[in-house]
Amino acid sequence: MGKFFVSIVKVIVLVVVINLLARFVYTRFDLTEDKRYTLSEPAVAVAQKFETPVIVDVLLDGNIPAEFAKLKTETIQLLESFGSKNSNIKYNLVDPLEDSENPQETVAQLQSLGLQPANVTVEENGKVSNELVFPWAMVNYNDQTVKVPLLKNKLGSSAEDRINNSVQQLEYAFADAFTKLSIEEKKSIAVIKGNGELDDIYIADYLTTIRDYYNIGAITLDSVASNPQNVLNQLKNFDLALIAKPTEAFTDQEKYVMDQYMVQGGKSIWMIDQVNMEMDSIYAGGGEAIAVPRDLNLKDLFFKYGIRINPVLVNDLYFTQIVLASGEGNDSQYNPLPWFYYPMVFSQNNHPINTNIEAVRLQFTSPMDVLENDYEKTILLQSSPLSKTDGIPRVVSLDMINQQPDQETYNNGNLPLAVLIEGSFTSMYKNRVKPLKLQNTLEEGPENKMIVISDGDVIKNQLRNGRPLELGYDKWTNSFYGNKEFLVNSTNYLLDNTGLINIRNKKVSIPLLDVKKIAAQKTKWQLVNIGLPVVLTLLFGLFFGYYRKRKFTA
């Protein structure tokens, strides 16, 4: 027995020594297969910028459903990983409804801050109940606060997929919040005007969202006719140009100014309607309108970069809905109906821009031809396999809602609708007569990027009482789409020099328990977890008593 106790003492001393050393030398070991607790270099870099405390309030404390308990655990472990890189990053667990005398008023206050709750159906012991959970975190630094959504919803996703999607985006979500709080010098975005682009109120939600990252200004190309050099010089002060649904043709002079801006390093996002068709025109025309081509004089510019937007309409069986009223007065009813010219575009998850985003809603979009040339091109959005093209001019009528589509004709799908172009940009006016004289022009430029989307309304938010609603929200069907996340990701990718957005490519797999199996085998595992330790303890006691009795009576 003496040797046995000596061994125990040695083990205790060793554990104490290891713990004393751990106080001075801290390290973590990530033994997970997907390295989910190993932070990426860009995330570590942004976390290490803080020299004063950053407090993260995680609103997932209290009695929450098992699904959210797993999300809570993953969030805490991630924040501990950030804290291991910078001790100024700390977190608190908060139950937003704890000790609330008026829960409804508290919920309303949280919603007014933009913290939308998740309504969860909980089934336990044969009883079903609904609970509100606020899957959010608030990152506080000095006098600034940034909201971080912890729950990532996707259409048709299961509970396991929802948690996996949520955990997968956690590192980027917090790194993105830290970036907003630590930005010292913002890059600039120019909203291009002068060619009938969308009014500011229709792009207000997008601009409000990106204002946390970037400075925003407007450049009007009308002045190109009188002072093109000044317009180019102003443009060059901006890092990215945003062209949102122009409806008037670009002059050759305006096009040359934009060409030089891009060749000299300016990023750009082009949102183009190649077909002139609006839902308002159909309503105003008594239920029908004629779709005709829209000539913006940009074909040669896009062709230079390997893109051709075809003047036809995409007709897709994966559609979003429109709402039509039937009846009169108090008997009016609003019915959601299929609209094949409003595709619901699901992401291929083939790039950090479109990874793990909700379906994007496009309106009267056109397909693009992706041509072979020296530029690298990535298709970010494409129509469903069950889609086709409808030529124009054509009459677009609400009567198509009542017609049964012939599925056999939907055999020309997977049509490109948004394309990322990367490479060393070459001027489309190389070896050509220039439409005007500019100073310090380039025909061969540095590495650059641009995105072309064949739908101008992808950025358009709806209005209610003259005020802009959230981009991607459809007030008529009360549906949310991924337009805002797609465009914000696009902007961040084009202007991100740190590679932070590449975190979105990180794959995480969280195994969840089978709820049905738990219910079926509940009693069995309760006996195993409670009864087995008791039995083992009794057996060990009997064996130890027998061993001592035999040893000391021998």
Automatic annotation (TrEMBL):
<dbReference type="Pfam" id="PF09822">
    <property type="entry name" value="ABC_transp_aux"/>
</dbReference>
<protein>
    <submittedName>
        <fullName>Gliding motility-associated ABC transporter substrate-binding protein GldG</fullName>
    </submittedName>
</protein>
<feature type="domain" description="ABC-type uncharacterised transport system">
    <location>
        <begin position="186"/>
        <end position="490"/>
    </location>
</feature>
<feature type="transmembrane region" description="Helical">
    <location>
        <begin position="6"/>
        <end position="26"/>
    </location>
</feature>
<dbReference type="InterPro" id="IPR019196">
    <property type="entry name" value="ABC_transp_unknown"/>
</dbReference>
<keyword id="KW-1133">Transmembrane helix</keyword>
<feature type="domain" description="DUF7088">
    <location>
        <begin position="33"/>
        <end position="139"/>
    </location>
</feature>
<keyword id="KW-0472">Membrane</keyword>
<dbReference type="Pfam" id="PF23357">
    <property type="entry name" value="DUF7088"/>
</dbReference>
<feature type="transmembrane region" description="Helical">
    <location>
        <begin position="527"/>
        <end position="547"/>
    </location>
</feature>
<dbReference type="InterPro" id="IPR055396">
    <property type="entry name" value="DUF7088"/>
</dbReference>
<keyword id="KW-0812">Transmembrane</keyword>
<dbReference type="InterPro" id="IPR019863">
    <property type="entry name" value="Motility-assoc_ABC-rel_GldG"/>
</dbReference>
